[in-house]
Amino acid sequence: MLKGTSLLAGSALILIAACATQKSVAAATTTEPLHPEAMLIQQRATVTQLYNENCANCHGANGEGGGGGTRTLLTREKFDQSLDKIYFDKVKNGVSDAAMPAYGSSLTDEQIWGLVVRVREFQGRALRAEFGSPKPVNGVYQSKLHNFKLETVVDQGKGLSTPWGIDWLPDGQMIVTNRPGQVVLVNGDKVTPIIGTPQARETGQGGMLDVAVHPEYKTNGWIYLTYTDPMPNTEDTMTKIVRGKLKFDGGTPTWTNQQTIFEVSKEFYGRANYHYGSRIVFDKKGHIFFAIGERGGNLKAQELNNPYGKIYRTNEDGTIPTDNPFVNQVPADKPFLKGIWTIGHRNQQGLVMSPTGELWDTEHGPRGGDELNHIVKGANYGWAKVAWSINYSDMPDWSPWPKDGTVITQPVSRWLPSIGASGLDVARGSAFPKWKGDILAGGLAGQNLDRIRTDGDKLVEREELLHGLGRIREVAVGPDGNIYIALNQPDKIIRLVPAP
Ligand code: HEC
Ligand SMILES: [Ca+2]
Prior knowledge:
This protein is an alpha+beta fold. The protein has helices at residues 2-6, 11-28, 36-43, 47-54, 56-59, 84-93, 109-131, 217-220, and strands spanning 141-142, 147-154, 163-168, 174-178, 183-187, 190-193, 208-213, 223-230, 237-249, 252-262, 277-282, 287-292, 310-315, 340-342, 347-353, 359-364, 370-375, 413-415, 421-426, 439-443, 448-455, 458-467, 471-477, 483-488, 492-498.
């Protein structure tokens, strides 16, 4: 560490180094306080600076090890979330038999956690470079439990544009949302726009979002849509949910009978054009669940006086079940908040009700810390009090463990580094019997499809099935049990089908 310090020019970095050096020495010898200016600069240090000044000298510039008797951190065994807390504790308390200093007195918990995330970023990059992506052999992907191949369902240039949600009508036609605003029917590879769907505003992450066909569609004809609703004459928007029916006018599908299911008061429309959520699922007991993102509200996700960063449960017509967890705690003049089921979410772009009745979400962390959560009535999922992330600015702004006693339900699985979690379903049906009950999760920036097996709230395994084919925005198991994927860049729908 001292050697690293002497190589540096420029006052700020030297002061950070001096601060950390002095402290780790101090921890061993005296309790002399840091120079106030050095302390202040250390408080403002980015994770990159903290790593380079405190850790690189022993662990190498990218975690490859070699200095101070360290071995490489870049192995598959070490790239395991069950070690996250162990790593945190080792950095905080030191490794006495291995000459690793303790940083608990010189770095905050947030800084130490940020360094663990940094190590995860090194590992993610190095392991991808070393092992690459799942690759087909003669068109067949060989995963642990099933071989599969990919088929194109709707190719590029056939009428899809940033496809966001997929569901099926009982006659086998697919219904797909295009984020710029259209909702389309897909028959074979023929794409037909539905006339008269609500006007969504495509802005940032917003637009036409999810679609869900009622499980009793044959008898009631309901289709649900979530979208970015614009406030007229302003830039303000908010997630809104409606349902409607299809009428076929001389073959042209037309949206009719629209009813509003979820709409917040105008004071909650805002200029932020991100973190809308938004997925919608049925529990087949007369309720829907849907996810509304935090809309840039951060800690507002913790409060019951606003709609941001929550998962909701309402009856299928939008009315409120009397046994919802917060009906008596939300402001009386904002009845739409009575639908709140859970709090503390960030941007939930995956939501699924498993065939056994378990509700799961995936949501985006900032840099690192995308989450798979088991959603349980009334629980708090932590944002923005805690997170498994570094901030986009490279500042260590969070640790995963609350210090103020708040009870947080932690993710069952987390992605460090981030995948941009989006699209979630549970494998079922006869096509992939050995995957039955496994969670299938997609990633945008990560361009990955992961299969996740859990045992209660414990992660059993996570296997990457696909990587690098495009941004995966939606994952949906079809009526045939095949696994359909909406890709963005290129904009198309593909499916996994079993292969010998
Ligand atoms: C003086 C050298 C030294 C410095 C400085 C140092 N470490 Fe270590 N660290 C070690 C040694 C030695 C081990 C024992 C494991 C090994 O063989 O690599 C270790 C272990 C670890 C482990 C646990 C690895 C495992 O597989 O269990 C983590 C995580 C870690 N260090 C992170 C850091 C971070 C983050 C910093 C900077 C804040 C840091 N270390 C600073 C020497 C150092
Ligand atoms: Ca969380």
